[in-house]
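Input (RNA exonuclease 1):
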Amino acid sequence: MHVMVVDTDVHVVHDTFMKPDNMIVDYNIRFLCVPEADLADTSVTLHDIQAILLSMCIANTILIRHSLQSDLLALKVIHSTIVDMSVLFPHHLGLPCKWSLWNLMATTSDRYPGQCRLAQL
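Output:
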């Protein structure tokens, strides 16, 4: 998992990879853009990431991300002030359908998630 935190000026204040507890069966590079090599040298654990996030966030810190609820579940973190882009931009078919980040970015900007990283692979 790739964890990046930016401030209100969109400056990166934390950027790291976290090695999951279990073996990764499929890196799914097409969607996640995290190749095996990026995780090979990391020793950062779930507990480390939780401590980092808890030290950076206070109760009124606003967390913004696409499918943030899924990420918070994976990180085993509860936070009450969130903006989930998949909820902010609902799918025209309604729930349980959600726009993928790829489709959402394609319709609202001229960039795609992982565009720069994919070019490097």
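The first helix runs from residue 29 to 32.
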